[in-house]
Amino acid sequence: MSNASQPKISLLQLVRAAWTPYKRMLPFLQPYWKQFAWAMLCGVSYAGVNGCIPLAAKYVGEHVFKSGATQAELLRAADANQGSHLTSTIILVCALIPITMITRSILSYLNSYYMMWVSLRALSDMRQQLFNHLVSQSLDFFNRSKAGQLISRVMNDTNNAQSALVMIASDVIKAPLSVIVGIAVLVRIDWKFSLTTLVLLPICMIPVLVFGKKIRKAGKAADNEAGIMSVILQESFAGIRMIKGFGREEYQIKLFRKSSEAQFHNSLKIRRSGDIVQPLIESVSALGVSLALLYVYTGQMSAVKFLALLAGLFLLYEPVKRISRIPLQLQRCITSATNIFNLLDIAPSIQDQPSARELIHVQGHIEFQGVSFSYVPDKKAVSNISFSIQSGCRYALVGASGAGKSTILSLLLRFYDPQEGRILFDGKDVLSLTQKSLRNHISLVSQDTFLFHDTIYENIRYGRLDASQSEVEEAAHLAFAHHFILEQPQGYNTIIGDKGCQLSGGQQQRLSIARAILKNAPILLLDEATSALDSESEHMIQSALERLAQNRTTIAIAHRLSTILKSDQIIVMEGGRIVEEGPHLQLLDQSMIYRKLYELQFLSHVPQEALGIS
To answer: Who contacts 509 (Cβ-Cβ below 8 Å, separation ≥6)?
Structure first.
């Protein structure tokens, strides 16, 4: 398709499209409109006082260097008893300059202070809203997102958007008003001189427009590369054991070097395009000064008047420079704000219904009715699953990897919702219940143990934040963790490092189990809960879990069948379907799949041919 056939977009439409994310950020300033109004008032007052400096300089100069006044006349005036009055007048006139400058400085400080206050409050609110929104997202969102990029959005994009928002809001009024007042004052003093010097002002905007486009393009690339760099950093630190295990330090260093080089070139383009604007403006301004000097020579202007006009010209430089920065600030604001609002516009795939109720007084009866679910189209993780779990009983899910066991636990926790069928808790459809109340009644111990970079005490207390010290220690006792905790340098107050890296895998798992024990929920989900333990630790934990499972509905996933032999019911899964269900001895006698799993673990000495394995 040719370019001629493509729909044309007007300049007005482009401007509106660019300002849409900027407008969406304005509500972040609304709670602090009083402070923002004070900042704007100080900014407007600053512009007025700043523009009046040339008038003050001219007024003072005319009184201090009175035309035709001689020392003799001053002496005669003093002899006529007017000296004291004259001296007082001159002192007051001379004080006008410091008074004006001090007032200007105070207004500048107040403007900057209130703007910074509003800026930091808006940044805090923006980050909090974005973080709240991201944490409320469903699990599938995080499955397809890069953690480093999300970190970059919360840290970098909010900072860029907020700072640009406030700077633009300030400069878009303060700077142009300073220029307008300054030009008006210059015209008031000598309009011919002003026209002679300011005729070059439009030329100063040419480099702003030319290089502004390059700055915007490089700025967008720099922001994108910042997100890539955050991803590399996050993955490198989170996967450091994997990196070192495979000897890929140099590979990660090359990835980071490549990103750093790209960031260098983008930043250099921004600085190069931005910094060249200032010398060009100064060069044009110097030409204006030359024209002004020619005008002074031909017009026989007084030195006082010329100095006042020259001061006014120099005072125009700073606001003009600020105006030249607005396009870059606007682009950074638009790019970062677009990234932020693209995330805020993503609705969680799992949401509570408007009429959702709190789950209370849980008995622990769970029922699956024809449940099917797919992570990707045309490939079902579980298909037409139906079974019932009685309250207070212990159930186990067994089967090969990919059979759908973990998917069932994820559906129970409402990490995902069934695409077909329904799940009932005590006869209530989980879709009719709030997610928070549902999960409050479930304790989870996963094979993917996660511990925070905090103390042992805080990691266990995470299971129930209002727990006391004695309750935390009791949970640790039940998980057979208390003894090794006391052996740590600071006991329960020992900081265990990122993901508990200062503890062994078995110790990490026991802290995770203690956390679940402390929660004391009526439903217990165990996803390979003893996978990281040695035989001795496994025996201790199994005893603790058996005590914990009393009068609770327990569902366990285990590849090590020794941990689930005493389950009331064992559900055998294959290919996302339930193929057998029953207690251990019954399945061992009737189920070929279960018997093969059992023989592989307990009768490993049997020849593979005898087990029917090629």
So the answer is: 445, 449, 529, 530, 531, 532, 533, 541
**Residues facing residue 369 across a β-bridge:** 422
CB neighbour burial string for 329-363, b if at least 16 within 10 angstroms, e if fewer: bbbbbbbbbbbbbebeeeeeebebeeebeebeebe
Whether CATH 3.40.50.300 fits 366-611: yes
- Is the pTM value of this prediction over 0.85? no
Instruction: Give the tokens for residue 92.
Output: 């007051």
**Which amino acid, residue 397?**
L
pLDDT digits (tens, 9 = 90+) for 413-434: 999 999 999 999 988 999 999 9
Question: What is the overall mean pLDDT for the chain?
Answer: 78
- Integer Rg of the chain from CA: 37
> Do 460 and 515 meet the contact criterion of CB atoms below 8 Å apart?
yes
Backbone angles phi, psi at 382, to 5 degrees: -135, 145
What 3-state DSSP class applies to 416? coil
Q: Residues 511, 544: contact at Cβ < 8 Å?
A: no
Q: Quote the CA–CA distance of 139 and 231 in Å, as a whole number.
A: 19
* Alpha carbon distance 218, 266 (integer Å): 5
What is the pairing mode between strands 379-389 and 366-376? antiparallel
* Neighbour-count burial for 499-520, b at 16+ CB within 10 Å, e otherwise: ebebbeebbbbbbbbbbbbbbe
Q: What is the DSSP letter of 348?
A: P
Region for residue 400 given its phi and psi (left: phi exceeds 0; alpha: psi -120 to 50; beta: otherwise): beta
Q: Which residues contact 251 (CB under 8 A, 6 or more apart)?
A: none
Interaxial angle between packed helices 201-238 and 249-299, expressed in degrees from 0 to 180 and rounded to the nearest 10: 170
- Is the Cβ–Cβ distance between 358 and 428 less than 8 Å? no
Residues in contact with 602: Cβ distance below 8 Å, sequence separation at least 6, in sequence order: 561, 562
Q: Domain map of the chain by residue range?
A: 25-127+145-344, 366-611
Secondary structure element (H or E) that encloses residue 554, with its range = strand 553-557
Q: Which tokens belong to 586?
A: 């019954």
Residues 25-127+145-344, CATH architecture: Up-down Bundle (1.20)
Distance (Å) of CA 44 to CA 29, 117, 165, 324: 18, 18, 18, 19
Map residue 352 onto helix, strand or coil.
coil
pLDDT in tens, 546-598: 777 777 888 988 777 777 777 889 999 988 999 989 998 888 888 888 888 88
Cβ pair 578, 572 in contact under 8 A:
yes
